[in-house]
Amino acid sequence: RPIEERVVNALGKQWHVEHFVCAKCEKPFYGHLHYEKNGLPYCETHYNELFGEVCFKCNHGIVGGE
């Protein structure tokens, strides 16, 4: 009899919940928002750090707007 597990369907694949993690910090999302770049999942912090625009003065990510 198969064991039923919690599964995440994301990026066109199925993942065990504990294995669907940020490609940078490796922390599981546990249902929280994730961002995708080049087929890899990232938490908001690391997505913005690696791929987002940052403020020249404070070096924090700029989300949306101009």
From TrEMBL:
One of its GO terms (cellular component) is cytoplasm. Gene3D superfamilies: Cysteine Rich Protein (2.10.110.10). InterPro entries: PINCH-1-4-like, Znf_LIM. One of its GO terms (biological process) is positive regulation of integrin-mediated signaling pathway. Coiled coil: none annotated. The keyword Transmembrane does not apply. It comes from the Eukaryota. This is LIM and senescent cell antigen-like-containing domain 2 isoform X5. It comes from Paramuricea clavata.
